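ok, trying the design again with the full structure, not the truncated one.
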């Protein structure tokens, strides 16, 4: 099946949501000298070895002011640069940054017993995940480990495990409302975002950022133009003006710029302390309900 409207909308919304939270809310922390440790990954191609940090996800959007975007790592006393082919030692590994899982991938020739670190990295305050689970399933089952942003962690995180603090985004359905002669409809789509925060300050911050987002516009990003590749790294030449695999949200090849998506309504809420304590005593939980509007011709 080819990518259709709902696929493209969800892709575009997720990219905008992450960018808006990071830029408007400055929802990240710059950390220095973050250790990396070898982490065995059975799902990774045998040509690669992974050195993982205690944090995920890392910021990869260069449009976010002040965020330190990782593009180098020090391994075994040698500095490696992202997307280059040689460190001067003749080993010839390509270094990739898995921003989504907070780790560095090297050619397997590098080995697994070396000391490694990244000297500076921006770690998101909230991991961002797409989900098809209901809020009841997300909240009640209390199934997520906490990857604290406030207490120093020392061990790598399982790369495919969803951890909190995080925001889970679900497309909850849409409807078409006729708006003009000629077949134009206003397509209204509801996104429910479930926020898991470490403290009340963090929760209120996320809710405040998006409570003020009514009327914001964002543009369509084609499904094939998602900026992240299968390794969690930024694709080459993803921006409209390529600059050495640097991702900038504002430079994406937006489509249909004369017909943006509009945030037509926003409602935020949170669980009461009494309910929160019974369900998940170590987390603070809130909800962001957003309606997205787009004028389109769905029958053409």
């Amino acid at each position: 099946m080819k990518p259709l409207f709902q696929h493209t909308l969800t892709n575009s919304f997720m990219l905008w949501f992450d960018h808006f939270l990071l830029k408007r809310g400055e929802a990240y922390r710059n950390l220095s000298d973050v250790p990396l440790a070898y982490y065995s990954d059975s799902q990774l191609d045998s040509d690669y070895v992974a050195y993982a940090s205690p944090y995920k996800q890392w910021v990869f959007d260069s449009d976010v002011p002040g965020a330190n975007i990782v593009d180098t790592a020090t391994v075994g006393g040698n500095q490696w640069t992202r997307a280059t082919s040689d460190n001067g030692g003749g080993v010839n590994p390509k270094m990739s940054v898995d921003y989504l899982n907070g780790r560095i991938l090297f050619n397997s020739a590098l080995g697994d017993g070396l000391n490694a670190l990244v000297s500076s990295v921006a770690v998101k305050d909230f991991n961002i995940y797409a989900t098809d689970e209901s809020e009841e399933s997300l909240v009640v089952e209390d199934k997520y480990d906490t990857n604290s942003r406030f207490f120093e962690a020392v061990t790598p995180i399982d790369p495919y495990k969803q951890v909190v603090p995080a925001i889970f985004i679900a497309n909850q359905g849409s409807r078409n409302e006729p708006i003009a002669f000629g077949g134009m409809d206003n397509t209204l789509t509801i996104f429910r975002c479930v926020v898991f925060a470490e403290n009340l300050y963090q929760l209120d911050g996320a809710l405040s950022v998006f409570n003020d987002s009514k009327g914001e516009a964002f543009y369509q990003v084609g499904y094939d133009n998602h900026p992240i590749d299968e390794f969690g790294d930024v694709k080459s030449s993803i921006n409209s003006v390529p600059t050495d695999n640097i991702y900038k949200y504002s430079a994406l090849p937006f489509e249909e710029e004369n017909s943006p998506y509009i945030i037509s309504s926003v409602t935020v809420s949170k669980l009461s302390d009494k309910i929160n304590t019974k369900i998940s005593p170590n987390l603070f939980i809130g909800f962001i309900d957003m309606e997205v509007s787009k004028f389109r011709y769905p029958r053409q």
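Keeping the full-length input from now on. The mean pLDDT is 86.
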